[in-house]
Design brief:
By secondary structure, the chain is an alpha+beta fold. It is built from 27 helices and 37 strands. Strands 13, 14, 15, 16, 17, 18 and 21 form a seven-stranded mixed sheet that branches. Strands 4-3-29-30 form a four-stranded parallel sheet, covered by helices on one side. A four-stranded antiparallel sheet has the order 8-7-12-22. It binds one RNA strand of 75 nucleotides through helix 7, strand 14, helix 10, strand 18 and helix 11.
Length: 872
RNA sequence: UGCACAGUGGCUCAACGGUAGAGCACCCCGCCGUUAACGGGUUGGUUAUAGGUUCGAUUCCUAUCUGUGCAGCCA
């Protein structure tokens, strides 16, 4: 049985009228009042306060957020609220990454239009979930990427890329399902088969597609990682690896039987060219047909066909044993005249380098494995000491001295690398070359629920952009048929496809591809700065005021693609003079995922619907309140780490808040704190307090200091911040006990005016430091205790409390006495002793004396106010 | 296989190279017209292992082991 919010409270053994902490009674009330008062609105261009742009990765509106999702919004909200209280003009916006495949799938399975499904999810997630968590978003700036007033500008930006030659059309392989007659995304390919037809193998097909030339920015994207010192190093390293810059050379080999035919390879190790014992081409390399002899034709054709049916994923994750076939032709090594065979093998990729590789088994693992499999010669050209070791049991990958390399023998291999490139350049055998692993960004999707690419194909004018004044190209809502089969739904819609050329007015066809949804999310942070602008994507003045984002919070799963694309967009837009900053996100926080025991697998796994281990928000909010949920997600683990959800721990935070609640309401109840008079209470006079009160007063200052530091951008130690609040509340209850209260309540105990002032001071500061993390209970108690009336403000726009540094330092310290680094004794001493005084205490300490036992002291090490180490 | 991060009381986490501490749980005492209870208190650690640097190492270095994440033959 639950005792109601207002009733005769006997459950605590005291017969008095008191309130129990029931979060539901007031959480929604405050959410409504905050919104009505507009306290979370950001002011464009305010120069009286410093700006702070706090951003959290916007969600895909999948329909239902669970507690796992809530972690990231809680973290970002605490950061925003803290900055607001520190006097910043905070921009904390939210929106929806609303285009994407799940909406189309819902359309297929539920016969529901993607837009209807999406809009309904957005409404639920916004009103029933995010708002009820107590987030402090400025909803006036809400953006939804599938709305035409947003994708209008996605299209406009695409055309800017097009006009600057950063959007180009190229042939590229796609996953093609012959039954559905459509292109599949990588995640729709399961075990090499279509997700809807497990019996049908997916084929690789070449199609003409749109790309953004992110490779044009490979170097700046790599170099500027150095500017992102406040990103997790793991993310920087992942991006660095993804961009994958390699310095090396292009070397040209001439085909023995066809002297006018040459094969160029890329290598990072031109120094090993004397060790080449074969050449390998990718199976797709166009030279293959020309270089295959009649005897080898059959075997080669078979091999090429096999690899066509392997998707790129298969080729990369497949077994490591090397396969391949010889073409029957040979090339001449331009450095030493050796004649070596040409092979094809699928470990060579067509879309990296030149699609051809020189095989150096002695100094490359993969080549070594290949040579072993097919009995090709292994030539040693580098040895650790300059003496050939003879037989190699594995590839030698280190640097060393050149051997078996003609006039280069004896050189250090690093030096040789330069010499080989020089030699190649002078003799026109090759050239130095920097290669990136990063590839251009394929943005074409043969899908309906995405942003249409605003171009037309005209028989006379070619590819023509839609003029600005005709944007947006609206995604048709009526008459669309989504079945998942037969290619792009837009392509089957004559009313969409048939149009006239903007240039010659002749007949033309619209482009029917839509854009990768990563494009929508590559600029949304700029739109927030000017979200409702009907005339342009964003006013540069507003973007330049808010950008860059001061704190971005999101999951590590976006460590590479989303963040890299956004960086690319920002740099490209900077070069188009649309923004000034060259990096969008100066600080990045990657929060860990939320896990929970999953009964189906018996393991602790990421919280997700499919695993059946989700904790819903509505149920939890109803029982314990949003504040308890927030506190638990902040407290249970450091923010970057994985967090295991457990109901007990969450309830623990509810108990903590109950303790806060009871303390404050009892204080009011007992008359020790009078809400009407709280504004005119005397300041706490530290000197006039007794020892226990002094300690409590210090505890308040220590807590404010600790929480201030823990919530700062340098730390973000939310878990320890909450632990400090726990400690302070424990201290308050302990103090009551010391004052003679036997039930942890101020009711029934007399207090002096000084003590009452101290309580008011303690409560005020506690509520303030708790406010960013537990916004509802802080506001409710702030109002109940009369602070709101006295100071005329909501707690969330009240200035963050300060602390007196001198009160956070104890006057009496414990001096640790060591002999040879081992603790022998601890003595209490006043703070601020001189070195000599400390040494004297140590030397006169009986325990130390007996330990020294007449031996000579070799050294005395003093750490002021901490310890003395006697070395004998 | 490579790269990254992490191994500290039962659990989750702290500790500028200087006393290994919190919170929760357990246990004990008290309160009670006990039932989302409440107040107080006591336990509890060779800091994964082995070396090294240092007056002094949880902290720095090296190696090993274990776990997690990311990558995936990028020449």
């Amino acid at each position: 049985m639950r005792v109601g919010p207002m009733g005769i409270c006997s459950i605590r053994g005291r017969s008095m009228v008191s309130q129990q902490y029931v979060a539901q009674d007031f959480e929604e009330k405050w959410q409504a009042k905050w919104e009505e008062a507009g306290i979370y609105r950001a002011d464009d261009g305010d120069t009286t306060r410093p700006k702070f742009y706090s951003l959290v990765m916007f969600p895909y509106p999948s329909g239902d957020l669970h507690m796992g999702h809530m972690r990231v919004y809680t973290v970002s909200d605490v950061i925003s609220r803290t900055r607001r209280m520190h006097g910043y003009n905070v921009l904390n916006p939210m929106g929806w990454d609303a285009f994407g495949l799940p909406a189309e799938n819902a359309a297929i399975s539920r016969k529901m239009h993607p837009e209807v499904w999406t809009k309904q999810n957005i409404r639920f997630m916004r009103d029933e979930q995010l708002k009820k968590l107590g987030t402090s978003f400025d909803w006036r700036r809400e953006v939804t990427t599938c709305d035409s007033d947003y994708y209008h500008w996605t299209q406009w930006l695409f055309l800017q890329f097009f006009k600057h030659n950063l959007a180009v059309r190229k042939e590229a392989p796609v996953n093609w399902c012959p039954i559905c007659q459509t292109v599949l995304a990588n995640e729709q390919v399961e075990d090499g088969a279509c997700w809807r037809h497990p019996e049908t193998k997916v084929e690789q097909r070449l199609m003409s597609q749109w790309f953004l030339k992110i490779t044009d920015y490979a170097d700046p994207l790599l170099l500027d990682l150095d500017k992102l010192q406040n990103w997790p190093s793991s993310v920087r390293i992942m991006q660095q690896n993804w961009i994958g810059k390699s310095e090396g050379a292009l070397l040209t080999f001439t085909v023995e039987s066809k002297p006018n035919l040459q094969i160029t390879v890329f290598t990072t190790r031109p120094d090993t060219v004397f060790g080449v014992s074969y050449l390998v081409l990718a199976p797709e390399n166009p030279l293959v047909a020309e270089l295959t002899t009649d005897e080898c034709k059959e075997a080669v054709a078979k091999y090429v066909d096999q690899s066509k049916h392997k998707t790129e994923l298969d080729r990369m994750t497949g077994e490591k044993t090397k396969t391949g076939v010889p073409l029957g032709t040979y090339v001449i090594n331009p450095f030493n005249g050796d004649v070596v065979p040409i092979w094809i093998a699928d470990y060579v990729l067509m879309n990296y380098g030149t699609g051809a590789v020189m095989g150096v088994p002695g100094h490359d693992d993969r080549d070594f494995a290949f040579a072993k499999t097919f009995n090709l010669p292994i030539i040693e050209v580098i040895s650790p000491d300059g003496n050939p070791t003879g037989e190699l049991n594995e590839a030698y990958l280190e640097h060393g001295k050149m051997v078996n390399s003609g006039k280069f023998n004896g050189l250090d291999s690093r030096e040789a690398k330069k010499k080989f490139i020089e030699h190649a350049t002078e003799n026109k055998l090759g050239v130095g070359r920097t290669q990136f692993r990063l590839r251009d960004w394929l943005i074409s999707r043969q899908r309906y629920w995405g942003c249409p690419i605003p171009l037309v194909h005209c028989a006379t004018c070619g590819i023509v952009p839609i003029p600005d004044e005709q944007l947006p190209v609206v995604l048709p809502v009526e008459g669309i048929e989504i079945t998942g089969e037969g290619g792009s739904p837009l392509g089957r819609m004559d009313s969409f496809v048939k149009t006239s050329c903007p240039k010659c007015k002749g007949e033309a066809r619209r482009e029917t591809d839509t854009m990768d949804t990563f494009i929508d999310s590559s600029w949304y942070f700029l739109r927030y700065a000017d979200a409702k602008n009907p005339a342009e994507a964003f006013a540069s003045s507003k973007a330049n005021y808010w950008m860059p984002v001061d704190q971005y919070v999101g999951g590590v799963e976006h460590a590479i693609l989303h963040l890299l694309y956004s960086r690319f967009f920002t740099k490209a837009l900077r070069d188009m003079k649309l923004v000034q900053c060259d990096e969008p996100f100066t600080n990045l926080l990657s929060q860990g995922m939320v896990t929970k025991f999953s009964p189906s697998s018996g393991r602790i796994e990421k919280m997700s619907k499919s695993r059946g281990n989700v904790v819903g928000t509505a149920d939890f909010f109803k029982r314990y309140g949003a504040d308890s949920a927030r506190l638990f997600t902040l407290f249970a683990a450091p923010v970057e780490q994985e967090l295991e959800w457990n109901e007990e721990g969450a309830i623990g935070q509810y108990r903590f808040l109950s303790r806060v609640w009871r303390f404050v309401t009892d204080l009011i109840e007992s008359g020790a704190l009078k809400p009407d008079l709280v504004g005119s209470m005397p300041a706490v006079d530290h000197a006039a307090l007794d020892e226990k009160s002094k300690a409590l007063h210090s505890l308040v200052h220590k807590t404010v200091k600790a929480v201030t530091l823990d919530l700062s951008q340098e730390r973000y130690n939310f878990n320890t911040a909450i632990a400090r609040c726990h400690e302070m509340v424990n201290g308050l209850y302990k103090y009551l006990q010391d004052c003679g209260s036997d039930n942890g309540s101020t009711v029934g105990t007399e207090f002096s005016e000084q003590q009452k002032a101290l309580f008011a001071f303690a409560v005020r500061n506690l509520l303030l430091v708790l406010a960013p993390m537990a916004p509802h209970i802080s506001e409710e108690l702030w109002q109940q205790a009369g602070f709101a009336k006295a100071e005329g403000k909501f707690i969330h726009v009240t200035t963050w409390p300060t602390f007196d540094e001198t009160l956070t330092i104890d006057n009496q310290i414990e001096l640790v006495l060591q002999v040879n680094g081992k603790i022998v004794s601890k003595v209490s001493a006043p703070r601020g002793l001189t070195k000599a005084q400390s040494e004297e205490i140590a030397q006169n300490d009986p325990k130390i004396r007996s330990k020294i036992d007449g031996q000579t002291i070799r050294k005395l090490i003093v750490v002021p106010d901490k310890l003395v180490n006697v070395v004998i």
